[in-house]
Amino acid sequence: MLHRLQTARDKFGWGLRVVGPAASLAGLGRFFSIRMRRPDRSEVHLRSGPVLEFDYPRQFPPTLMIFGDFIDPEFDFLKRVARPGWLVVDVGAAIGQFTAFTATCLPDAFVHAFEPSSANVATLRRNITRNRVEGRVAIHHEALADHAGTAQFETTSDTWNSGLVRDEAEHGNTEIVTLNTLDARLDVLGIAHLNVLKVNVAGFEPAVLDGAMRTLSEGRVDILILLLGLASLPYYATIAALGYRCFYYHPGEQSLFEVTEFDEASVLNHRPWPARHLIVIRAEALPGLLAGLVTVQPAKAGP
What we know:
Elements: H1 2-19, H2 21-37, E1 41-45, E2 51-55, H3 62-67, H4 73-81, E3 87-91, H5 97-105, E4 110-114, H6 118-130, E5 137-140, E6 143-144, E7 149-154, E8 163-164, E9 174-180, H7 182-189, E10 194-199, H8 205-210, H9 213-217, E11 221-227, H10 233-241, E12 244-250, E13 255-259, H11 264-268, E14 277-282, H12 286-290, E15 295-298
Parallel strand pairs: 3-4, 3-10, 4-5, 6-9, 10-11, 13-15
Antiparallel strand pairs: 1-2, 7-8, 7-9, 11-14, 12-13, 12-14
Helix pairs in contact: 1-2
């Protein structure tokens, strides 16, 4: 509980710095209004353009509601370096935050969105339609993992913590979902190269990365946005050995801070803000991608 409170405090402080006191106070008003009214469904209009509908309370996005926009550093980074026509895969698309951002805020980008939860997929489809980007998004109702087959997926009361069932114990709201590997799905889709691969799957990131190793070893992805997690530490080192470099990005300084050691302290305790994702970039693509728009610096400790 103490760790969660500290994380919430740090994230609120970061959001306050990103959007400013006035916008944050207005967002707190929206937040408490929703909590008091408790509608079955609501929406949030983001300053960057997208509108996101959500079912309340399980899909309620408090950070977006409070700050009124995407505050995680990777969003600013991608907008800064994006080129027209990027091809993006969103693994763990949920209700479409990253997918909607990519399809509306990056020039002519196309997104393949993978999401196993039927409830999330229903909202994701509404959000794609609401933002009029149906022609730039393909929705795949399935989970990506380290093998093909089927599995049980549990949708929890907090959709952000939903995930594949890890054991045989009895669970509540479950459904059978299709499993595939990213390697196999890219082959079927005829995709030879990805500009961005985002992976956020509530602790199952190692399985997704296992199923993407052929693609990564062949250098077919330029940028990965990976949810931080202790179980993923060995994978960061493995991916780095395949010719990728790992970073945190600071929007205010327009700099990437490089991470070169992959123990817990090096990865988790040297963030210059409460970042949730690691930005991983193929070394050969780095000079052309940054093109003077973003600088690279050594790891930076502290907020």
